[in-house]
Specification:
The chain has two domains: 69 residues, no CATH class; 80 residues, no CATH class. The model has no long low-confidence stretch (mean pLDDT 91). It has a four-stranded antiparallel sheet with strand order 2-1-3-4, with helices on one face. By secondary structure, the chain is an alpha+beta fold. The protein starts with a strand and ends in a 9-residue tail after the last strand. The chain is 36% helix and 26% strand.
Length: 179
């Protein structure tokens, strides 16, 4: 079992948003959580990823046999959890290539692997750019800076392809698309 959520209750600023959900996700499964706005879908995604502005008031989340709620956000990312945001943020002054190389090599070090050399990283980046059909100009710019909504979403899919997470949570994948 990859992820098990038991009787999860979550509040923000004293208001209960999630009221006792249970969920089991096994490796290789795809789950879609659907519902009207304000029912806690993004809250659940944020809690799994480790955002600290939410308070878990009851229940537990077990990820790969470990108590996820005891893990800091960085460890959750290193353990293979990826969250695609409903509204991806811009990070001015940080190039996409540097951002990805830093994140990827941090995960590799955590797993006891050697960091990728510059040339190894560029090869991997080129392979993943072709996979998701992302333009080189997007990976040469600051993270999401000046990107359209669709470019931001495509950039997140590129990040996911580069990091190869074990658990990918995609929040509102169609929000902000260039249609």
């Amino acid at each position: 079992m990859l992820l098990q959520i038991k009787n999860l209750h979550v509040a923000i600023e004293g208001k209960e948003i999630i009221k006792g959900i249970d969920l089991i996700v096994n490796e290789g499964e795809v789950h879609a959580i659907m519902g009207p706005n304000g029912t806690g879908k993004s809250t659940l995604a944020s809690v799994i990823a480790g955002r600290e502005d939410y308070e878990v008031t009851e229940g537990e989340i077990i990820y790969k046999g470990k108590n996820l709620l005891e893990m800091p956000i960085e460890q959750r990312a290193r353990e293979g959890i990826f969250l695609s945001f409903q509204y991806p943020v811009e990070i001015p002054g940080v190039s996409m290539a540097n951002f990805m190389r830093t994140a990827l090599n941090d995960i590799r070090r955590y797993k006891g692997l050697e960091p990728l050399s510059g040339s190894e990283f560029l090869l991997k980046m080129e392979e993943k750019k072709q996979l998701v059909e992302i333009q080189s100009q997007l990976t040469n710019r600051s993270v999401n800076e000046g990107f359209s909504g669709g470019e931001k979403k495509k950039n997140e899919i590129f990040q996911m392809a580069m990091l190869e997470p074990i658990l990918a949570i995609l929040d509102e994948t169609d929000s902000g698309l260039d249609i």
